[in-house]
Amino acid sequence: MVAIAKVEERLAPAEASQLAVTWRRFRRHRLGLIGLVSLILLVLSVIVVPLISSFTQEGINDASPFLPAGSVSVLSGHTHWIGTDEVGRDNLTRLFYGGRISLAVGLVTTIIVIVVGTVVGALAGFYSGWVDTLLMRIVDLLLSLPVLPMLLILSRMLNSSGVMDRIFGRNLGSVATIILVLSLFGWLTISRLVRGSILSLRSLDFVEATRALGANSRRVILRHLLPNSLAPIIVAATLAVGEFIIYEAFLSFLGLGIQAPTPSWGNLLQNAQGYATFITDIKGLNPTNEIRGYLVLFPGLMILLTVLSINFMGDALRDALDPRLKM
Amino acid sequence: MTTYLIRRFIQGFIVLVLATFVIYSLLIITPGGPRDQLNEMSADPSKHLSQAFVDQMLKRYKLDKPYPLNYFVWLFDPSETTDIRGLNEEVPKGIDVTVLGFRIRGSGVLTGDFGKSVNIAKGVPVMEIIGSRIGYTLILTSSSLLLALLIALPIGIISAVRQYSRLDYSVTAFSFVGLSMPTFWLGLMLIIFLGVMPKLLHIQNHWDWLPYLPPGYISDTGQDGNIVNRLYHLILPVTVLSFVNIAAYSRYVRSSMLEVLKQDYVRTAWAKGLSQRVVILRHALRNALIPVITIITLSLPFLVSGAIATETVFSYAGMGLLYFNAVFQVDIPVVMGLLLIITGVVIASNILADALYAITDPRIRYS
User: Fold this and answer.
1) CB-based contact, A152 to chain B, within 8 Å
2) Which of B138, B136, B149, B150 is nearest to B301 (CA)?
3) How confident is the model over A65-76, as pLDDT tens digits?
4) What distance in Å separates residue B76's CA from the closest CA in chain A?
């Protein structure tokens, strides 16, 4: 094994240079750079803002309900920069707490999806035969189902069955549910990408050469085939983060995703809908007959900003990693 | 090609059976469904439910059969041949035919009987509910799809022909925003800023000159009588749906057009001295449209299934909202009926897309 590694080392180009080339190409992409910077700022702010905020996310009765933006809390003397919600919680604090949850759902789901998709795709592509047929039939079956309708059914079922609540606790149960549901349908495209890429690489001479040097299947897959199919995986995964964030927001908006009191951008919107889109008091939702557009504006803007940054970044990554890849 | 299509259809049918089996099994164990409601009712002593009634209900909702069997009863139930209409009038349902000396009697999905709604509209046949909604959805989705194509095609072509122009950059920026936009949020914002806020100004400040738009709310309550009123209510939902579709389609048209414009035969056309109009519209566009046709065909299911996000935000009484309500209230017959239609259309349009691809592009051969 040591001998193989040594030969490979001498034959393969240094890995750092590949990274440097990618970074140089990425930097030229102005929108991609903007996306990267704003995404870093977003991630930092959802980590930091709740820590330095003078209010807590459950801070019921910190202040009067529906204080306008910029008003000062009578109790603590701190400013509510974008006002308070219907039970007097600070909107800004909850917005960034919600961001933690939304971003975490996007990231964790993507990681799960990459692992599952890569393993399935690599197995199917490398071993072909009945393994390939079986796995790809399953993928075909799942791909021919309408995604959003299926997500609704699954999250409706898992949320009310309370299974995940029992495993992960009341606060994280709905978070775990939505991650599971999104993962169930998320790995399909990645597994197809990986399979296709491995199929095309498998018959190339360098793989033959590695085998001739005595490398076993595991080594061929992990050291040679997968690293060479990384480019499409990275691009697809980046774009998937944005997709998952939007799905999470929509499911939570419908009441089938993250459950209150845990905030997420989606259920902040669900909550805000009643106070912003009814003038007359249809369901006893909007007692003071006022339109509070700002309650809807900010969570949505955060989603848009995040997904837009991710999409810019994904586009730039595609150009940087492999100029031949198309949209 | 014919054998290929036949094979695809058989595969599609198998997928449909497997998918409905999985979904049905999931729905049966979803809490809040008919079994839970029955348990709750029979546990309540004030309701005075007789065991006979409970058994009858279990049978009606096909809950009396053990686990995998109830799916097959949903497909075909030989024991249920009559339907109760009104109070106690029994009418035959399903099929009653004699094939090769065998008498086949029964009801179920295979005989075209989708059952009756359990929660949403108790006792109304599923097909009747879907029939009353599908018209609304078709109007909404087809008009927004058409509008999107009418706008996206020229935009995509022009921005490909003038690549890296200011127009091209703004089209690209626009389509990025459109693709990153949470549709339901866009709907909410439009309701607030074009519907509710101007209306409030009407009421409070008496600004009678200020126009405002109705926030959807087409429902089957009868308020949608005349056609002008209907169109008026369509403005916002169609705007939201078109916005997203324009973003996606213009990007596809642009990249597909760019691909074609680079090719040798287009350069030959230029070299022959043909006018820009002829080169672009007759030579390039025709080939550039091939992948676009596929994309459009693949979005056909959206015509039928409706836009769940947009319909729920605007309370637009189409298939999407119906589906959401049915899932939320675990109305199994309605959910299954809708899913069968939607999945069927998804599979059919996948096959259609492949077939059209081969027809429009003779280089593609299926074996």
Assistant:
1) yes
2) B138
3) 777 777 777 777
4) 23
